[in-house]
Amino acid sequence: MKILLINPPGKTSFIAPPLGLMSLATSLRNSGHFPKILDYLIENFNQDSLFNDIQKVDLIGITSVSPHINNALNLARLIKKKFPDKIIVLGGAHASLLPQETIENNPFIDFLIRGEGEIRIIQLIEYIQGQIKLKELDGIVFKKDGKIINLQPKKFIQNLDNLPMPAYDLIPFKKYSLYLQSQFQPAITMLTSRGCPFNCIYCSKPVFGSSIRTRSPKSILEEIIFLKKNYNIKEIIFYDDSFTLKKEKITKFCQLIIENNIKINWKCETRVNLVDQELLNLMKKAGCYMICYGIESGNQKILDILKKGITLEQIEKAIIITKKAKIKILGYFMIGIPQETEKNIKETINFAKKLNPDYAQFSIATAYPGTELYQIAEKQGKITKDFSDSFYALTRQKKIISLCDIKSKVLQKYLKKAYYSFYFRPSYIIQRIYKIKSFNDLIYNLKGLKALLRI
């Protein structure tokens, strides 16, 4: 079967290779199918060109994230109107978290895949072709005889090493490298685990579940070697929610990098309570140049409301030992959290300046489907039916919703204040100039300045 996998168009401050679609593509290819990827976050949308591609395929798969769900649905509607006999399948986080509403309100969607799609899309095709029966499916939603059939996902993929390497050859590799927030070029993203055992109220973990499943250090190393050999990659950006969750795995990974003399720069995201000095020193030796920490707030009560499971003391300690390991730090901070006051926001801004990470990213709390924040926003009547006003963080739209008692316009002013008061401190500017040691450092900081001036 010929299959077109589409990442729909949309405005976003974040562009990265569609790892989910790339993984699906390899799975499809290994099963004898012929996939093609179209990513309209990086390619210009051309209707004639799209229709020309669709004429040649049997099935269209569209991924969906909540900030771009309307774009995904509009695209599906457009395709179905022109090609009523083509099979349209919707997947991705939004479809997984709100399957019933999505399939019920959008009759132009033929099937919806919930959760991990690498195996389910193969089974769905086999079902469509009459090779297997309905009872053999799971995680699939569709309408039959006017009734919605919602087959619950039975299990997650346990051994991630069994998943094939993403289809890097199906994307315009060099284009993504220009958009990634990387210091070394060319760069690429990588995912080495799925699932999260923590309970932060702003995270939609039901897509991958609470049970952490990881790739082996050997598998990760093999992919890095492949990327270096075939694409001359200089930097890996690990997108795991908590990269250092399993210390033994990361220790072994770093040891393999060092033992095999692999020269690669990389950065990751993790929690402040999942690092220690020994591990950080090893990570630095293995090429880690930056860690992104979810700090969120400078007030312990707000951290507890977020169910972060960390303390201000743990945050301060992690920053100190990371600096000691000579690893750069990006701190994530959030404002507009339920029950937060203007005093609390000021505490967070001051805490960020006190910690003085190399970089700070501030955002307004956003209620994504599948999160506890979403449930709170629903009870407050702040979620629009079409989600058009609900997702500020990724789309940078002007209208936002406030999840606390502070007005939206005031939150936007505090967001701008947070950025400007952090980055335009004379001491910080001098510090940044002093730390520019290479052309890459200069370019990275200029990119950051350009992004800052757009806020």
Radius of gyration, CA atoms, in whole angstroms = 22 Å
Instruction: Provide the β-strand percentage band.
Output: 15-25%
> How many distinct helices?
18
CATH superfamily of the largest domain: tm_1862 like domain
List the helices and strands and how they pair.
Blueprint: E1 2-7, H1 19-30, E2 34-39, H2 47-55, E3 59-63, H3 69-82, E4 87-91, H4 93-97, H5 99-105, E5 111-113, H6 120-128, E6 140-144, E7 147-150, H7 173-179, E8 187-190, E9 193-194, E10 213-214, H8 217-231, E11 235-238, H9 247-259, E12 265-270, H10 277-285, E13 288-296, H11 300-305, H12 312-324, E14 328-335, H13 342-355, E15 359-364, H14 372-379, H15 392-395, H16 408-423, H17 426-435, H18 439-453
Parallel strand pairs: 1-2, 1-3, 3-4, 4-5, 8-11, 11-12, 12-13, 13-14, 14-15
Antiparallel strand pairs: 5-6, 6-7, 9-10
